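Sample intake sheet
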Amino acid sequence: QVQLVESGGGLVQAGGSLRLSCAASGRTFSEYAMGWFRQAPGKERAFAAAIGSSGATLYADSVKGRFTISRDGAKNTVYLRMNSLKPEDSAVYYCASAKWPYLRDYEYDYWGQGTQVTVSS
């Protein structure tokens, strides 16, 4: 059974930083891509970043240069380092697993429960 557990969300002031973590279990972590998506109230879930099994990364234009996705195979964990946070980054952040680093959420087959990020102005 695949499980993804996010942590690290919270309340931060604009311009601040947070690091989200997603611990994975139940499948061979090194063989799969991991993605981060976010969903703000009243909006659709949106792609933020993804990392392939090889370490190749993809970012949404809205986070490029501010967010960094990384993975630690020894810990079966993927991270999302978020710098220069803006109020519009406030959302529930989800990690997800798929064979490849897709941009669309429906192509991911396992999801975490989400962690809330709130950026105050």
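Comment: The chain is about 0% helix and 50% strand. The longest strand covers residues 18-25.
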